[in-house]
Amino acid sequence: MIYSPGTRHQTAAEGRNAMGTTLTAAAPTTARPATRRNYARRYWPFIVPAGAAVFAVILFPWLFTLFMSVHDWHIGGGIGFTGPANYLRMLTDERFGLAVLRTLYFTALSVLFPMLLGIAAAACFHREFPGRGLARTIFILPMMATPVAVALVWTMMFHPQLGVLNYLLTTLGLPPSEWVYAANTVIPTLVLVETWQWTPLVMLIVLGGLASLPTDPYEAADLDGASAWQVFRHVTLPLVWPFILAAAVIRGIDALKAFDTIFVISNGGPGTASETLNILLYLQAFSFYDMGYASAVVVVFFALVLLITLLMLWTRRQATL
Amino acid sequence: MSKVGSRTLGRRAGLYASVFALISPAILVFLWMLSLAFKNEVDNTAFPPVFIPNPPTLDNFVQVFAKNDFLLYAWNSVVVSFGATGIALLIGVPAGYGIAKARATRAALLILVARITPGLAYLIPLFLLFQWLGLTGTLTALVVAHLVITIPIVAWIMIGFFEGLPAELEEAALVDGATIWQAFRHVALPLARPGITVATILAFIFSWNNFIFGVVLAGRSTRTLPVAVYNVLTFEQVSWGPLAAAALLVTAPVLLLTLLMQREIVAGLTAGGVKGG
Q1: Of A160, A177, B76, B112, which has the fewest CB atoms closer than 10 Å, so is most exposed?
Q2: Per CATH, is B59-272 categorized as 1.10.3720.10?
Q3: Among all residues of chain A, which has the CA nearest to that of B231?
Q4: pTM
Q5: In this predicted structure, what is the pLDDT of residue B72?
Q6: Dihedral of the CA atoms A150, B152, A53, B223 (nearest 10)?
Q7: Cβ neighbours of residue A45 under 8 Å, at least 6 residues apart?
Q8: Hey, are the CB atoms on A20 and B175 less than 8 Å from each other?
Q9: Same domain for A160 and A52?
């Protein structure tokens, strides 16, 4: 959902004036901005209900969060203005700092592996073969399945003594793993679940890119006698690159926001070994009922998500392969 | 000749092997879910594990229904998901049309911000608001909260869809004296039906799957299925069979919908990279 929708059909409204009739050749260019605005205004009534809903359930929470973040606000306690105290507290809160680092670690891995596998999968599913539709549907089932339900099954599979995964590992002659029951394996294990679940989305976006490839450059490359590698490097990759980056941005945002599987499978544990920002937030708000501090963390968390999104979009603009 | 033939054959085999490797993790997890759900308790905790239920038993499912208000939770899920999807369609489809036609990039950007924002950012203020209004633990609160997921999905898919429609038909209607509303209602809307189908399915699925809103906002009797499976079953009965059976029941409608409507779902997801919460 990264493409700005306004950019796709630049020509749609340009040929029409305020009356909705089609202008033929030369519309005076000076009059155009005014007519455009008039034209757009007629469609506002369509947007107003959504605007109201967005205000109620999206914008209001935001303003309220900002308000709370500068107050000492405990449920059941008093409310007092504290200024930047909640924000300053984060600087010295070691638990918060570690949560940020964990979130970045988890996100980096949860972008890397789904991207690699997703691109490979897209290359496979782009080829025609019998049974492709069914295989593709099975492949996307993990991302459609209810995350909590799937997470519970993974939890049972990760059981160190009775779990099926350790049985499979030992059968293959590999040492068993502690999975989510040890501090050093819990995040890689959660990344495994995240990869399992969200590789399909990367695949679908890249597959969409592959499907939109024009045939002309390939014919030209063929005429010029380009090798398969050259075709891939100089034709396919530059054309698909925007889709790959879009997929990476979406994956990055979703990985930062990951909650359900972590919450259900490890609940931030063992200890705090898998306590990401989202989990910490949940605990602060709904276990400790410290709404003021939680709100400040939300603001910083959102800033982090926004920063990483913009950074990735910026790379997308810079990267011209 | 035969060399070329064996080479293409080799590539074919390689492709099938890769596809098999790619889909086997999905198959394994879902098969294991089935296996756990249909095995008796002794087999479920046996080591080495028993893979095929022999004989398959329905005891786990019976337990799920007998020991919990599973039907109540299912009903809650149905009410919340249908409610949130229905309202999102009423609001989001015209919005998508308006944004596409007026090319209101800023409005579209706002929807994008809604997509980026972590669910907990909505939850803390909404939780306090509902508490203040006395709505905590009601289905109304859950439906409203789920709009955070469904409206952006519907609006975003519809923006893309209305932009893709040829403008000529509506223009003709407008020239013939139709109002802008009539052009929307009688020209654009019927053409956009495939887009509405896609938006409905995806909004419904992501609302059905949502966990975090229910965990915070639902009361004892208003739990949706994912919350019920997590809350009730994990704490009150730790045995694996009923847990797997319940998990299977929760996710089965979504999996069936995906299998039946895979073409629409793939189209919608490819266009938007949609995901709720």
Answers
A1: A160
A2: yes
A3: A264
A4: 0.84
A5: 92
A6: -10
A7: B98
A8: yes
A9: no
